[in-house]
């Protein structure tokens, strides 16, 4: 039995009927060909054998999460004594002709449902019937089980050849064995003991918080860069219509080489270019609806806190976040990228001054009954006042594998990841590199994004605009180097 941390617990309480806190991935599979040249699709039994062989490296797949009576402390994860692998494996067949739009509809349906808390919080859905004999695998995992770093390890184990190298994450403590579910009395006793121990950190945390806030305030008074603050720096728009369970799904693949070309020509980071592409797409989308706020769209950007030499981790959430501007008040895309880069660099500096781990540490010691009250109060407040929003959009960026993965003998052609939109932020844009492409998995409240196909087109257009300007910058740089004195 192990206790979840404060960030995990936050996602537990944010899991509401109108906002399932489920991370979803969508893999498109190219089955191998048989002797006659026809595809040999994976059967559910094949998937079962594949997953069963990897369970020892995926500890969270056998966790049942139990809340503490009275919400005195964070939930605990227990090795489920009734674990049934078959419950977590599902299959369905698309109607002919098996288009990508029909697969997108399946993803939207699954994204609108909450996972059953009476079981470990994940499911795999094997989808048959895509054109050309292809299949898909849609995974659903509760966000409380893993953040992006842990998800990357999980998928590297799931999407691997049968004879993969065994890497055991740090969460695994000896061979797996089921545990008896603890009685309420023990849950309460352990919670009181652990909460008392955690509260000893409070004085030091208060001192660090005071120093961090003072350092950020001093920096803000001397800097000429305005960094938007959540809520006060955000003007709500249709992207913040985030109140129903229905979801929209927008998968988009862009050439990684083009993004890197823009990065090099502009002297920006790859993440800056990603934000600029998102900014250009949403700017055009909102302008077409006469709904672009006068103030720049604001963006929440998760920031990982994993050191480079950290051991493999398959479970848990350990990240901070910063708020930056998407500079949608700037018409020129090249100038917009420069402004995004400038503001985001300053936001990172202030995030470090505040303390990257400050918020996660506070969440660790705040009792869950306070967290639950805050989550429900926030949702009621947003419903009552739709003109307020924390930020307009969330964008996260992960580095993925250079080579495409396999699921058994099937090639994973495409693999999109997507996080849950929540807390009045209508679209969650999750970006990661996969082979030679950047994969944008955009999950939105259906009310906040009524035309996913249009947004897909605008993302391509936004990158094309930046590539064209990068080409001009390259010509100018080459001319300057020729004219430079020797």
UniProtKB/TrEMBL annotation:
Reaction catalysis annotation: an acyl-CoA + a 1,2-diacyl-sn-glycerol = a triacyl-sn-glycerol + CoA
For molecular function, the Gene Ontology terms on record are: diacylglycerol O-acyltransferase activity
Which terms under GO biological process does the entry name? biological process involved in interaction with host; glycerol metabolic process; response to hypoxia; response to nitric oxide; triglyceride biosynthetic process
The Gene Ontology CC terms held by the record are: plasma membrane
Instruction: Show where the O-acyltransferase WSD1 C-terminal domain sits.
Output: 316-466
Please state the pathway this protein functions in, per its UniProt record. Glycerolipid metabolism; triacylglycerol biosynthesis; Lipid metabolism
Q: Does the keyword Repeat apply?
A: no
Its top-level enzyme class, in one word, is transferase
Superkingdom of the organism of origin: Bacteria
Q: Where is the O-acyltransferase WSD1-like N-terminal domain?
A: 4-274
Q: State the family named in the UniProt similarity comment for this chain.
A: Belongs to the long-chain O-acyltransferase family.
Name of this chain's protein: Diacylglycerol O-acyltransferase
Q: Which organism is it from?
A: Iamia majanohamensis
* Upper classification of the organism: Bacteria, Bacillati, Actinomycetota, Acidimicrobiia, Acidimicrobiales
